[in-house]
Amino acid sequence: MHDSRIFTRSMLGIGLACLAMTWCFAGDEASPPAAEVALPTMRGPDGQIVNLTAPRGGISALIFYSSECPISNAYSPELNRLRSEFPTESVKIVGVCVDHDLSSADLMAHAKDFDLKFPVVQDRGGAIATTLGAAVTPEAFVVDERGRILYHGRIDDQYAARQKKNANPKVSELRDAIVAVLEKRKVAIAHVPAVGCPIPKPIPTVTAPTYAGEVASILQKNCQECHRRGQVGPFSLETYEQARKRASDIATIAEERKMPPWKPDPHVGPGLKNDRSLSTDEIATLTAWAEAGAPLGDPERVPPSPNFPEDWALGTPDLVLALDEDFSIPADGDDIYRCFVLPTNLPKDVYVSAIEYRPGNRRVVHHMLGYVDVSGEGRKKDKAEPGQGYSCFSGPGIEIDGDMGGWAPGNEPSHLPEGLGRSLPSRADVVVQIHYHPSGKPETDRSRIGLHFSKKPVRQILHWNAAIKFDLKIPANDRNFKAEAAWPVPVDLQAWAVTPHMHLLGKNMSMSLKFPDGRIQELIKIGDWDFGWQNSYFFKEPITLPKGTVLKVVAHFDNSADNPRNPNHPPKDVAWGEATTDEMCIGFIAVTKKGQDLTRAGEKDDLHDLFKAQIKEFEKKMKEQEAKNRKQASK
What we know:
GO terms for molecular function: antioxidant activity; copper ion binding; electron transfer activity; heme binding; oxidoreductase activity, acting on paired donors, with incorporation or reduction of molecular oxygen, reduced ascorbate as one donor, and incorporation of one atom of oxygen. Pfam families: AhpC-TSA, Cu2_monoox_C. There is one protein chain. The protein has 635 residues and is α+β, with helices and mostly antiparallel strands. It contains 11 helices and 37 strands. It folds into 4 domains: 5-198, Glutaredoxin (3-Layer(aba) Sandwich); 211-301, no CATH class; 319-449, Jelly Rolls; 463-624, Sandwich (Jelly Rolls). Helices cover 18% and strands 29% of the residues. The N and C termini lie far apart (84 Å). Residues 1-33 have low confidence and may be disordered.
């Protein structure tokens, strides 16, 4: 299907160059002048005529969108609701797609996939976006029948910034503007900056660092694990054209170190495995390439695409655990945290050397975490709730007997070092928590976990312990509340990994060690905490922890109304708890017992029992302190 355009005005090109100054409302001397634009009549991808001009006495709401922008897609249900709220004879809503490389069939498929209830057109040359001044997707423009732009900007306040969804949205500027115009009132706020994905720039002619020469290999190594067809990345970066149209955005995100997702401060702590951060030289190359206009270079020099495993990266697992049936994720709404109980039915105890997570639907699976349950409590919680699994937020909500690692976008599975293993008792259940992020259309998921059993003798078992601030209390309206926690090492250990953990009020967290001789060693610092990008960070080399070493955690929280992630509106005092509206301050650390050799006759793994005893002693002291505080308060 061709993309011929039909215009209602006899103007060169698409008729958007004509601008004239008029008043917003007749007789309103205080109103500022608004620009008039001539909107074209176009053919939609299905061949139907779509006149962008507003109906008589009404308005056109033009929504610039991209099929590859997750924020844009997430607004599909809200735009459908707006379409159903207002009469078609006075309010015309049209989606203007900025993806000029999509075919008409692709555009129609996307509209059908997201069940768009309004017509769409394609701004292939970018002329409409350029003339109206659209900069991101999604961005809305309310235009009256005379071509006056009465409002432009965001649809509502669901997003405070990219990757920051507002926990308490309360303003709908687009709807308010439409209502005001229909009621012959002045639009209260004519512009609110939109939050979303930058609109691609026109094809450049400048040359410099080239895609073929340098950029393709950077994207292949660091980005394509997620940004390829069918993966969690909202758009693909597998071809030159896919990268070219997003060159400026790629450079900006790389410079801000928002992508690839890697939260640890590169200047703090020992070397970490699977570091996905870009080097300074790589960032500089991407920036120079974007500034030069994203040239292709010699297409013969583009390196061949890497081969990504389509199934299990580590080979066929010894045991595959999977959801019993498809789990349904709605088109919109809050993120979903769901725990699923997966029985292992193992006849005997085993050691696990590697765990591979296979998200069933990478469009909606944000991350996965696994836990070992030998108590059957997970099954009870599952049975108590309708449907598959049970609701959970911070963790499984039960006492666990060990962990089964986890997955986040870009994580690569690997075997533990030789001689190390995770304990998986016979008949144990694996409880997997899955974080789902609605995509803008109904989805389903049936994720799997592949377990690889240790083939060689296991000498040491990997355990997790933590420095925890159980008596956490964060005052309302405190923008920078400080919390500290510590854990004394009871025996000689070796540390292998750390996992910082907070909820939605978290700002930053650092973990460090204080050795018995007074030395301090920094382990990790997350300067910009994001609950959605939690991870376990493994050291390149284990760290010896002599008995008496203290693991320290320092964290800061923002419990003010200015924190867009704050789930409480207005802010209120927040204490320790499992719920979304509660908080936590935990610095987990993965350890093995130094010198442990379970292959020796009579040797037993006693770390788990030792750690449990520590926790009980800590809880006892907390209760004694609480009783003492109550007694003093009663005097």
